Model the fold of this input.
Amino acid sequence: MTSHHESIDVVVLGEGLGGLVAANLLVQSHLHVLILKEEDYRSIYPKEGYRFAPFSNFRERRVPSHLIQKISSHLSLPQLPEPSHQLGSFQIILPQARIDLFPRGPLFDREIKREFPKEVDKIKTLYDSIVQKKESLMRKKMEEGEALFPLFPSHSLWRRLKGFMWKKREGLNKRFSSFSKEFREYLKLQIFAKGNFLSEQVDFSLASYLLLSEEGFSGISSEKMKEILFKKFIDSGGRALGLEGLEEVERKGRDGF
Done:
């Protein structure tokens, strides 16, 4: 593949956050990089006044602040917004309820009281235990001096994580059995969306981390972050082409495309 009579060393498919980070790093290594964009892809589908988002994008549209800091450091990006909460950005939609997601506080309490009025006290007790479990995990993280979920985990940490995640466990359905089916679904959908785990595949520690993982998210959306990375990529000499404009790809061995 040639553009302006120059060969392309690396082709990156799509404009996902990971691909844009990789493309920028490759350009910084003085390689000729081309991003192939999928013009028809949309992360949000507006229709008749409503905005529908694929459920798999629930987690993808939020960027943890520690990841923002690492990306900014590696790519020498300008100072980005401090971590903050984007209240009411998402909803959990159930057969009998529609719940806006908020960090714990008055707005969160209001949602719970409205949708689960008969379980308010039990839910408060549950979330208190979740907070305690997460605080315990954070203390362990600080004591070990190694990120619990790092961007590039070491082999030793990865072995410990595998043992932690796949060990025999009772499953969350049993632990949450005293709650209504509607509330159990509310928790299960969050765990699946935030970590891509089915509730029977995680124990309470990991569930606690996922359910309270709203804290520490940046004040910048992933879409805005992708705009910044794409501009950085183009300004650094990278090129982009829509898949619809691609007619032929010719492999030139070690000389690229």
Remarks:
- The two ends are 4 Å apart (CA to CA).
- The chain has ten helices and eleven strands.
- The first strand starts at residue 2 and ends at 3.
- The mean pLDDT is 70.
